[in-house]
């Protein structure tokens, strides 16, 4: 009995040691994976249900589009920081009379405040000097939903407003 247990452990250990190869495969009710090409240049071909086409990608500058249900491994080549978003807080929302705006970053260029109604019409447009905190009197606007756009140079902030 000890001999049988020892043989079973040896077989499991050999199977475990040989199973350490990384391989991409397709798992599903239909589809498959095959390796084609010679030893110097092997290619893995995969397919899944409803996909009979070649998997591929298209890259144009910084944009990459991938084709197919089975995606190739993701490789990150560079990360771009979005420099166009202005960080701001607005309160209270919904607003009755005065809207407070606090910019959470230093701004050294003139600031533009634009309010649009839901039809896209400009109902408020004002440009002023760079400042961190502003108050906007909204008593002249009727009760409705609006879109606030704050611009400072190339940066902008958008928010939905509700006026009571």
Name some characteristics of this structure:
3-stranded antiparallel β-sheet; Immunoglobulin-like; 2 domains; 164 residues; 4-stranded antiparallel β-sheet; single chain; mainly beta; 10% helix
Beta-strand content: 35-45%
Number of helices: 1
Number of domains: 2
Output the strand order for the largest sheet. Answer: 8-7-10-11
Classified by CATH, the class of the largest domain is Mainly Beta
Name the helicity range.
10-25%
Give the beta-strand count: 11
Q: Regions with pLDDT < 50 over 5+ consecutive residues?
A: 24-28
Can you give a write-up of this model?
- The protein is mainly beta and 164 residues long.
- The protein folds into two domains: 29-77, no CATH class; 88-163, Immunoglobulin-like, CATH 2.60.40.3080.
- Helices cover 10% and strands 42% of the residues.
- The longest helix is centred in the first third of the chain and has 17 residues, at 2-18.
């Amino acid at each position: 009995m000890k001999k049988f247990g020892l043989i079973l452990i040896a077989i499991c250990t050999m199977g475990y040691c040989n199973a350490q190869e990384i391989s991409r495969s397709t798992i599903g009710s239909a589809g498959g994976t095959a390796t084609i090409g010679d030893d110097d240049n092997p290619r893995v071909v995969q397919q899944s249900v409803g996909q009979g086409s070649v998997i591929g990608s298209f890259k144009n500058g910084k944009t990459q589009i991938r084709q197919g249900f089975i995606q190739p491994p993701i490789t990150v080549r560079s990360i771009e920081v979005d420099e166009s978003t202005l960080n701001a807080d607005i309160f209270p929302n919904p607003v009755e009379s005065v809207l407070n705006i606090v910019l959470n970053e230093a701004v050294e260029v003139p600031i533009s405040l634009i309010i649009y109604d839901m039809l896209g019409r400009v109902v408020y447009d004002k440009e002023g000097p760079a400042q961190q905190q502003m108050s906007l009197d909204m008593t002249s606007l009727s009760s409705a939903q609006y879109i606030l756009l704050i611009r400072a140079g190339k940066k902008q902030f958008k928010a939905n407003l509700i006026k009571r």
